[in-house]
Specification:
The structure holds two protein chains of two kinds. Chain A is an alpha/beta fold. Chain A has ten helices and 14 strands. The relative contact order of chain A is 0.13. Chain B folds into two domains: about 230 residues, no CATH class; about 100 residues, abc type-2 transporter like fold (3-Layer(aba) Sandwich). Chain B has 14 helices and four strands.
Chain lengths: ~300, ~375
């Protein structure tokens, strides 16, 4: 079975900014694939190239087996795309927006209603309201409806949960899972690490590069060094102190603790604890933990540029 | 076709729901016509006139009477000496002073020549010129009446006749120019803004991905404004006719057809602007500075083209409004037909096709 999305060494430059550097990835049919990265990592550029809105400087991308440059017309009719910003008509009502996008894509709301029913049910009470007056979560649901209304085979979602409250975010991801179950391939970008575990596979992006691609579980295996959660009263001082430790690789705030990574292959938490006490942190506790996605991403972000600079 | 109708309907929603757009579209033409029609006039009335009569004879009194019976001049007082003239102007009590030399009637009788002087306020040259002309007309009228029996001045007299606008009403001048201006503003400005707005809000991204063809998007944008602008043409022409009595001597259908053509020209310019700009503000600036100003200044609307410096005359050739003005004046005031105006029509047509082709070509099916 050929992949639904395939990119090979995509490069894109805007002026002097390299937005994408040799980005290669492959997304299988009916896969929920996440692009994880901070702002400016190149997620939007990649999605726009796949949506046929941009032409790559070099490299090649295919969607549903069609080249994104040569076959852009057909791709456009078969995919759904939701841009990063809320891009519906704010002065049109919920209903009018939906009908407009359905008609423009040559479909009707009725014939694909079963696909959007779950989502639209929540919007139904507001269908006469102008889209501009909806809450952030509602807006994104409407945008998703509009992207789905022509029953696309593939969905490209650019940061659909940015600026949306926690509950709506959760609901949104549940919807994506249901769409996936219906056989729709979904490529979604997000700056939120906690959303990565909800994907089948994720790609970490930084400065236009794809750092790693794996399942959320698999990707944490890339993190090989000892990781400790350190708790203490003065977190700021603690971070500064940890960073000055001779074996320290990194230390950064994580929730209400500090995640400390040792530079050695193996390290003992009690050794670090006693060192901290010797530096005056009497109440500091050190606990060895399994790396999460965010730890892995942070580690990859620090490593990759160095490796690339060396090699 | 269904898609296209949905697109046009959406455009109408935008126009109707945005109060500012609706206000500009429908309020402005009416407001401007009334403004130009009532406030901005070249005719002069209520000229406050002072008399410095050093002769006080029957002839000077007869001329004075005639002056004030015309309705244009209002008696503002008698002056005793020339020294009083300047202060009267400075205080704004008078716009004009008529001076008769001593023994006016006697000299007229004896020598056949008597002197009178018309003093006007030169700080407003336009008004001065018109006031002087009016006064002269009144005096020569009087002399002509008197001349029947008595010794008549032999000489050549030029009798001016202003064809098509005998009383030189300024509304006649403004209506065609105003039509050009309004259509340019509504059509070009509004379309360029409405397309760049979609770029700004990101909806253009969705429209492109929707696989609507560029032509469909462009035509979808054009149709609503074409209809609305046409409504404006009808409004302005009927207002001009019913409120200001501007005639339409030629074929009304031809006038409307030519207006549609000019609307198309303006719309294609608006689309062209939107293809090269990415924000509403830039589009607005370009439309105002690049289209509206030349339309007002270089089209012959206010300043006659043949009295411009030659580089400006050359530039005026590429201003669509220039040709439209000729057409509208021709049809409305002179009753001309297509046989006379085909050259101007053809020019507009060629311009429209060029602009349209350029914008469809430039309209990018992708971002950037």
């Amino acid at each position: 079975m050929s992949p639904a999305i395939q990119t090979e060494r995509l490069c894109k430059q805007f002026g002097t900014v390299e937005a994408l550097r040799e980005a290669s990835l492959s997304v299988a049919e009916a896969e929920l694939f996440g692009l994880i990265g901070a702002d400016g990592a190149g997620k939007t550029t990649l999605l726009r190239i796949l949506a046929t809105l941009l032409v790559p400087d070099s490299g090649k991308a295919t969607m549903l087996g069609l080249d994104t440059v040569a076959g852009y017309r057909e791709i456009r009719t078969r995919i759904g795309y939701m841009p990063g910003r809320f891009s519906l008509y704010q002065d049109l009502s919920v209903e009018e927006n939906l009908n407009f996008f359905a008609t423009v894509f040559g479909a009707t709301v009725e014939e694909n209603y079963n696909l959007i029913r779950d989502i639209y049910a929540q919007l139904e009470p507001f269908r006469k309201r102008r889209a501009g007056q909806l809450s952030g979560g509602m807006k994104q649901k409407l945008a998703l409806c509009c992207a789905l209304v022509h029953r696309p085979e593939l969905l490209l979602l650019d940061e659909p949960t940015t600026g949306v409250d926690a509950v709506s975010r959760q609901e949104f991801w549940q919807m994506l899972q249901r769409l996936k179950a219906q056989g729709i391939t979904i490529l979604v970008s997000t700056p939120y690490m906690d959303e990565a575990v909800l994907c089948d596979r994720v790609a970490f992006m930084q400065e236009g590069r794809i750092l790693a691609i794996d399942t959320p579980q698999g990707i944490t295996k890339l993190f090989t060094r000892p990781l400790f959660a350190v708790r203490g009263s003065d977190r700021h001082k603690l971070i500064a102190e940890l960073r000055s430790y001779e074996h320290a690789r990194s230390a950064y705030a994580f929730g209400n603790s500090v995640h400390y990574t040792d530079a050695r292959e193996t390290a003992d938490p009690s050794e670090l604890a006693s060192w901290l006490r010797s530096r005056g942190f009497d109440d500091a506790t050190v606990e060895r933990i399994a790396p999460g996605i965010e730890d892995t991403f942070m580690a990859l972000m620090e490593e990759k540029p160095k490796e690339l600079a060396d090699g | 076709m269904k898609r296209f109708i949905a697109f046009v309907r959406k455009e109408f929603y935008h126009i109707v729901r945005d109060r500012r757009t609706a206000a500009i579209l429908f309020g402005m033409p009416i407001l401007q016509l009334l403004l130009f029609g009532y406030a901005i006039r070249n005719e002069v009335s209520e000229v406050r006139t002072g008399i410095l009569d050093m002769s006080h004879d029957t002839v000077t009194e007869a001329i004075t009477d005639k002056l004030f019976s015309s309705g244009t001049f209002i008696f503002a007082g008698n002056l005793q000496s020339e020294k009083e003239i300047a202060p009267a102007f400075a205080a704004g009590r008078m716009n004009e002073v008529v001076v008769f030399e001593p023994d006016f009637a006697g000299r007229l009788q004896k020598d056949g020549v008597a002197r009178m002087q018309v003093v006007t306020d030169g700080s407003d040259p336009n008004v001065s010129r018109i006031v002087t002309g009016y006064t002269q007309a009144v005096v020569s009228d009087y002399l002509a009446e008197q001349a029947d029996g008595s010794a008549r001045q032999v000489g050549v007299e030029a009798v001016p006749l202003m064809m098509f606008n005998p009383s030189l009403k300024s509304v006649y001048l403004f209506v065609p120019g105003l039509m050009a201006m309004i259509l340019m503003l509504v059509s070009a400005l509004m379309t360029s803004i409405s397309i760049t707005r979609e770029k700004e809000s990101g909806t253009m991204e969705l429209l492109l991905v929707s696989s609507l063809r560029p032509v469909q998007i462009i035509v979808g944008k054009v149709v609503p404004y074409l209809l609305l602008s046409f409504v404006n043409v009808v409004t302005v022409v009927s207002l001009a006719y019913f409120v200001f009595g501007v005639p339409c001597r030629g074929n009304v259908a031809l006038l409307f057809a030519e207006s549609l053509l000019f609307i198309m020209t303006a719309l294609s310019l608006g689309i062209m602007i939107s293809t090269i700009t990415n924000s509403q503000q830039v589009a607005m600036m370009v439309s105002l500075a690049g289209l509206l100003l030349p339309t007002v200044l270089l089209s012959g609307f206010i300043f006659p083209i043949h009295s411009m410096a030659w580089p400006l005359q050359v530039i005026s050739n590429i201003i669509p409004a220039r040709w439209y003005l000729v057409i509208v004046r021709g049809i409305m005031l002179k009753g001309a037909g297509i046989a006379v105006l085909w050259k101007e029509t053809l020019t507009l047509l060629v311009m429209t096709v060029l602009f349209m082709a350029a914008s469809v070509r430039k309209f990018s099916e992708r971002l950037q």
